[in-house]
Amino acid sequence: MMRVFTKFPPFCMFLMLSIFCAFTAGAGVQPHGGMMRYPDVSSTHIVFVYADDIWVVPRSGGVASPLASPPGGEAFPRFSPDGRTIAFSGNYDGNLDIYTVAIDGGIPQRVTYHSSGERLCDWSFDNQLLFAMNGLGGLGRQAQLFTVQQAGGLPKRLPVPYGGYGTISGDGQWLAYTPRNRDFRTWKRYRGGWASDIWLFHLDNHTSKKITDWEGTDTIPMWHGRKIYYLSDAGPNHRLNIWCYNLETNEKKRVTNFGSSE
After folding, report:
1. Class of domain 1-125
2. What is the pTM of this model?
3. Residue 11: which H helix or E strand, with range?
4. Where are the domains positioned within the chain?
5. Pairing of strands 128-133, 118-123
6. Which of 117, 141, 149, 184 is deepest in the core (most CB within 10 A)?
7. How many of the other CB atoms lie within 10 Å of CB of 224?
């Protein structure tokens, strides 16, 4: 079954965060919605990062509360399929590792221990954690995609040569991923050799298909039923917007319409 009951496309949640006017990070502080990063949504809550800490707020609105705020930064929080656990990348011991914490709070539990940094991508349908990591197989400068059990253990590399970001479909058959990642570089409207496209890879029969061909940026795919939502700067203004790819019709459609003036 697809996990449509627990998630909406995470990019849309960035727009929703501005409704939480009661959010308070400190006495007299009312942060702007643009200061909140990496949102994710479950059936009951929204999680996001503000000031290098993880915050949660009821999906119906209300006051946000800090969930994980030890010394060190946190990023990429993601709800588990049942919405009771949040996984994230945390820099507590000198580099990024993956941790989990209950939605009700508590001590974060460390999952990965590799000396390279791990960037969390998503949960898989069977409660494993999907992440990107550099440094294995002689590819120190190129990330690869791995899964690891929630309780920890030896990571398992996915059968693709390398990958910058990925997400697995709800039935566990398809990996949607970008072979490389440059989402955190200041290369706006970039069209060079590192421009990313989105590929589909079948995890059983190992067939693949490229589903985007824009010469600029197509990145950060996410499954929602039989559709894949992603970010792209295709369009007249070459501004990043949310797009949707329909697996049934192979149609690509822009969902948001942010222009150059926003």
Report:
1. mainly beta
2. 0.82
3. helix 10-16
4. 1-125, 158-256
5. antiparallel
6. 117
7. 15
